[in-house]
Amino acid sequence: MALELKQSLKLAQQLVVTPQLQQAIKLLQLSQMELSNLVQQELLENPVLEDRDGQPDEADSEKQSNAEQHEKAKDEDRGHDHSMDEVGTSEGEMKEPSNFDWESYLDTYNAPGYAAEREARSPDDAPTYENVMRQAESLHDHLLWQLHLSNLNEKEMQIGTEIIGNINEDGYLKVGCEELASKLGEEIDHIQFVLQRIQSFDPIGVAARDIQECLILQAKMLVEDSKLVEHVIQNYMLELEKHDYSTIAKKLEIDMDKAKGIAHVISELEPKPGRPFSQESPQYITPDVHVKKVGEEYIVILNEDGLPKLRVSNFYRRALMKGSDVGKHTKEYIQERMRAAMWLIKSIHQRQRTLYRVSKSIVKFQVDFFDKGIAHLKPLVLKDVAEDIEMHESTISRVTANKYMHTPRGIFELKFFFNSGIQKLEGGGVASEAVKLMIRKMIESENPKKPLSDREIVDKLKDNNIDIARRTVAKYREMLKILPSSRRRNRD
């Protein structure tokens, strides 16, 4: 078979996503805090970029320079001795006076009490708040600290460390004693002995293997004459869950008030003993958009606090001018960095404009919500806003991701305003969030002895001109974290 080289011309059309376009798309999805962090990183990496906040323009710099030269000339006329100037000069350089006694200065600086005195004089030099914050103690650290204070031998300490390492953040032991005995090559009685010691540690109920054992451990420690309470926890958890106190009273041959009292004691116990040692830190929300009512109109204001105002450095602009003594490779590098800087500035401006237009469109569609509340939230989809501002739905989806709006009614994620519609019997629609609010209010006002079933909620919604299926009501109820009617019933 002979091989042959040929040339051919082919015309094709394809979409190429350039790095610059990828950056612009990425900026659309960033929140205010993420964008601020990205800009700060770009300021560090790109020497062409500058933050113009607090920096004077060139004209102001020239005026200041002329004024300084004028003052210098006046000082020379007066015979001013510059050798007595302070070490920190106005030019930002560290210049020492000609007659400065360094030996005396170092002796004083190294004196024992000088550091504290210097810190007292300069509070701005103190360590930052983050560097002096105390880290919260974890549950494992708290248990290990108690284990080391226990009178256990080396082998028991090893078993205890293994047990504590298998306790989850809620305080439950997630492995059995048999598995631990097999792993450590120890007798199961030895494992259970150390486990009992750990179960006596603080917090009470820790290292339990299920919720019943956890509650029983707490009842033994906290409840006087706990035998009856332990018996109820061991055998009547299902009745407690259903508030079926009459069955508990009948089987235990006690009166109803005592059954309710036992149930109240059990409800005060902690089902998750590790909760106080949770390592989760609070998530602080910085709104990207503010909506304020001025007169009868709602005004949209972008939050640009903490976002540097970027510009291209005049120093590097001058370096590219004709006649500047800059090498070829240096010019190419500056041009590349300048193109990246200009594209970043343009992308940020485009992101801000798009966010403003999307927010304004949302306010226009949901003006009844801002005036009257969640019950008047209208059905809204991405397509509605996309058609309103003549953009693609994918752009709207990216802009509304991870962003929050501060309104007179509170702080809401932008995606909160997009709701599927529930059909009304007489035409039109209502937002799903409004239906959830109606379901919550119905359940809050129900009779505890005869709670509303999902079917009864469907019928009540039909009376309010809302057509909805029972399984949809069940789904919304679960999203609201509301128990079914059988578990909400309060049986006397």
Kindly describe this structure.
This protein has 24 helices and 8 strands. By secondary structure, it is α+β, with helices and mostly antiparallel strands. Helix 1 packs parallel to helix 17 (328-365), helix 11 packs antiparallel against helix 12 and helix 14 packs across helix 15. The longest helix has 38 residues, at 328-365. The radius of gyration is 35 Å and the shape is extended.
Task: Please outline what is shown here.
The protein is α+β, with helices and mostly antiparallel strands and 492 residues long. The protein is 52% helix and 7% strand.
The CATH superfamily of the domain at 139-277 is RNA polymerase sigma-54 factor, core-binding domain
Radius of gyration: 35 Å
Q: How is the biggest beta sheet arranged?
A: 4 strands, mixed
End-to-end separation: 95 Å
CATH architecture of the domain at 139-277: Orthogonal Bundle
Shape: extended
User: Which blocks of ≥5 consecutive residues have pLDDT under 50?
Assistant: 74-97, 105-123
In terms of quaternary structure, the protein is single chain
Structural class: alpha+beta
> How many beta-strand elements?
8
Name the strands of the widest sheet in spatial order: 3-2-5-6
> Which bin fits the share of residues in helices?
40-55%
Mean pLDDT equals 80
Top-tier CATH class of the domain at 139-277: Mainly Alpha
Number of helices: 24
Q: Classify the fold: give the CATH topology of the domain at 139-277.
A: Arc Repressor Mutant, subunit A
Give the SSE map.
Blueprint: H1 19-29, H2 32-45, E1 49-51, H3 58-78, H4 102-109, H5 114-121, H6 129-132, H7 139-148, H8 154-165, H9 177-184, H10 188-199, H11 211-222, H12 227-235, H13 237-241, H14 245-252, H15 256-267, E2 289-294, E3 297-302, E4 310-312, H16 314-319, H17 328-365, H18 367-372, H19 382-389, H20 393-400, E5 404-407, E6 410-413, E7 421-423, E8 429-431, H21 432-444, H22 454-463, H23 470-479, H24 485-488
Parallel strand pairs: 2-5
Antiparallel strand pairs: 1-4, 2-3, 5-6, 7-8
